[in-house]
Amino acid sequence: MDGATRLHKGNERIHHLMGVSCFAERVVVSETSVLPLPDGVPPEIAAISACAVITGVGAVVNVAHRPAGQPLAVFGTGGVGLAAVMGAALTGAHPVIAIDVDPVKLELARRVGATHVVEARETDVVDRVLELSNGGAPWVIDAVGRPETLRQAIECLRPAGTLVAVGLSSTDATVAVPINELVQRQKRIVGSLYGSSNPRIDLPRIFTLYLAGRLPLDDLIGGRRPLAEVNEAYAELRSGGVGRMILLP
Questions:
Q1: How many helices (H) and strands (E) does the chain have?
Q2: What is the pLDDT of residues 175-230, one digit of tens each?
Q3: Measuring CA to CA, which residue among 58, 139, 53, 126 is closest to residue 94?
Q4: Secondary-structure breakdown of the chain: helix, strand, coil percentages, each rounded to the nearest 5
Q5: Most exposed of 127, 133, 174, 224 (fewest Cβ within 10 Å)?
Q6: Can you give the pTM of this predicted structure?
Q7: Which of 93, 138, 135, 87 shows the shortest CA–CA distance to 116?
Q8: What is the pLDDT of residues 4-32, one digit of tens each?
Q9: How far apart are CA 28 and CA 19, in angstroms?
Q10: Exposure b/e, 27-62, CB count within 10 A at least 16 = b
Q11: CATH fit for domain 46-196, picks 3.40.1010.10, 3.40.47.10, 3.40.1190.10, 3.40.50.720
Q12: DSSP state at residue 69
C-alpha cells in the first residue's frame, strides 16, 4: 500500500495492477491481497471468481433487494453478465432474461440459469423484455457499459424499478435519462463496483456455493492458452469469444 513493488523485469521496476497484477508466473503481493483457497476449488475457478464472478453475482446478491419470484433482466452475457445470470437464478428471480447480440453467448446463458433470452439484433429489445416481464422488470443489470444498452435498460424497468450498472466504458461516456420518466415512474439508477462486494466475505461464500453445486462456474471457462499467448487470448475475446479465457503459466 506504500507504493513499493517486488515485481521487476531485469532492472525495470513494474508496479502491480490493483495491488495484485497478472501475466507473470511469479509475483509478490501484500498479504491484504490474498485469501486462502478452500480444498476442492481449482485455481482456474478462483481466477475467474476474483473478478467476473464476484462482480456479476455480487450485483444481484448485494444490490438487488429480494428478487425471488420477480423478473430480472441482464444486458450482456460476457463473463460478468453470465455471472449475474447465475446470481439471479441462485436468488430465485423469475423470469431471468438475458440480452445479447451473440446467439452462442445466449445459449450459454440458458445453460447457467436464464429462463428466456433476447437476441438484440433480431428483435426490439425493450418490447420483448416488457412482454416477458409483464410490463417491466423491477431489476435490470447492465453488464455492457454502453450508452445504448443503459438507455434500453432504463426503458425496460417497471415503475420504481432499479437499474444496476456494472459495465465500465470510456471515461467520457454519458447517457441521457428522460427526467419526467425518472421522476413520474420513480425509476432508480445505481452503480455497483466489483459487485458492491467485500472479497473477504463474498469470495468464501462464492466458493462454498460452487462446491455445493449452486454456481456452475466451470461453464464460464471458454478456453485455455499458455501465458505466452496472452495477446491471442485478448484478440479472441475481442472477436466474440465466449466465457473467460484461462492463461496457464
A1: 9, 10
A2: 999 999 899 999 999 999 999 999 999 999 999 999 999 999 999 998 999 999 99
A3: 139
A4: 40, 20, 40
A5: 174
A6: 0.93
A7: 93
A8: 888 888 999 888 777 777 787 887 888 88
A9: 10
A10: eeeeeeeeeeeeeebeebbbbbbbbbbbbbbbbbbb
A11: 3.40.50.720
A12: T
Q: Are 60 and 84 in contact (CB under 8 A)?
A: yes
**Whether 112 contacts 89, CB under 8 Å:** yes
The C-alpha cell at 49 is 471468481
| C-beta of residue 244 within 8 angstroms of C-beta of residue 79 | yes
**Domain parsing of the chain, residue ranges:** 1-32, 46-196
- In whole angstroms, what is the distance from residue 87 CA to residue 138 CA? 16
The dihedrals phi and psi of 142, each to the nearest 5 degrees, come to -105, 110
